[in-house]
Amino acid sequence: MSKASRSDAERPSRLAVRKTYKLFIGGAFPRSESGRSYVVSSTKGDFLANASRASRKDARDAVSAARKAFPGWSGATPYNRGQILYRIAEMLEGRRAQFVAELVEVGGLSAKKAGETVDAAVDRLVWYAGWSDKIGAVRGAANPVAGPYFNLSTPEPTGVVAVVAPEDPLLGLVSVVAPVVVTGNTCVVVASERFPLPSITLAEVLATSDLPGGVVNILTGRTAELAPGLAAHMDVNALDLTGVGDPELARRCEEEAAENLKRVLRPSTPDWTVEPDITRMTAFLETKTVWHPVGI
């Protein structure tokens, strides 16, 4: 055996860098305060990464970040919010290859199907971005009244929305988050427990897309641990239970949400590939009506 051959044979194999994905709270990527994580495996059972397992304290921190971000985000012009959602779409498309690889490894999709899913997520963001400065005209109204007054109704964001994301790790996630934030709400998202990696990769996109910190906060971990606490949190104004598959857990969350009269969107399994309507945007809007005397 030559000297070169012996050198190659004796050289140790390279150690893999095992990544632990962190949470996304307030525009930063902290570890869970509990120090917990769980293993994310491919469809073949191979190790892919560790995901942080958020605690109830992490959820409370996320709500605080969302509340802090709400005045600035709700006060931004609809046009500006639309610009930022469009920028998110641009950045997501720029990382298309990474999302395709994750959907193949985690979701077991073919490369073609994964590519179509990423493209659909980009298109979904652009679709909602286009509604940012139009939803007010569609949902607002000038009301006829018996008197010398203008009576105007306009939609306003509800506040902080807790979202339990569906199992669809990208298109479904985008389809529940975009309508919440484009209308001026901020949110705390419980990512898919089984498929958390695309959600944290999306968080990396959000962090570089001009989105103010705290508008979207993403928690990975156990849905059964995080959802009830968010449902009971008195500073959460609304609850989207789309991704809750356990009827008993959904019932418990609705009971907790009733304590402060939260708006609740019940669990559902929509076809995410179908073009949406405005229902998810209007679900988390309040109507403000003002009276103004007619000038003479």
Description:
Strand 9 (238-240), helix 10 (247-257) and strand 10 form a beta-alpha-beta unit. A five-stranded parallel sheet has the order 8-7-6-9-10, sandwiched between helices. Helix 3 (78-94) runs antiparallel to helix 5 (111-131) and helix 9 (223-232) runs parallel beside helix 10. Helix content is 44%, strand content 18%. The mean pLDDT is 93. It has eleven helices and eleven strands. The protein has helices spanning 3-10, 56-75, 78-94, 96-107, 111-131, 135-139, 171-182, 197-207, 223-232, 247-257, 279-282; strands at residues 20-21, 37-41, 47-52, 141-143, 149-157, 160-164, 186-190, 216-219, 238-240, 263-265, 285-293. It is α/β, with parallel strands linked by helices and 296 residues long. It has one domain (22-293): Aldehyde Dehydrogenase, Chain A, domain 1 (3-Layer(aba) Sandwich). Keywords: Oxidoreductase. One of its GO terms (molecular function) is oxidoreductase activity. Residues 33-264 form the Aldehyde dehydrogenase domain.
Compact overview of the structure:
This protein has a single domain (22-293), classed as Aldehyde Dehydrogenase, Chain A, domain 1, CATH 3.40.605.10. It contains eleven helices and eleven strands.
Secondary-structure blueprint:
Elements: H1 3-10, E1 20-21, E2 37-41, E3 47-52, H2 56-75, H3 78-94, H4 96-107, H5 111-131, H6 135-139, E4 141-143, E5 149-157, E6 160-164, H7 171-182, E7 186-190, H8 197-207, E8 216-219, H9 223-232, E9 238-240, H10 247-257, E10 263-265, H11 279-282, E11 285-293
Parallel strand pairs: 1-3, 6-7, 6-9, 7-8, 9-10
Antiparallel strand pairs: 2-3, 4-5, 5-11
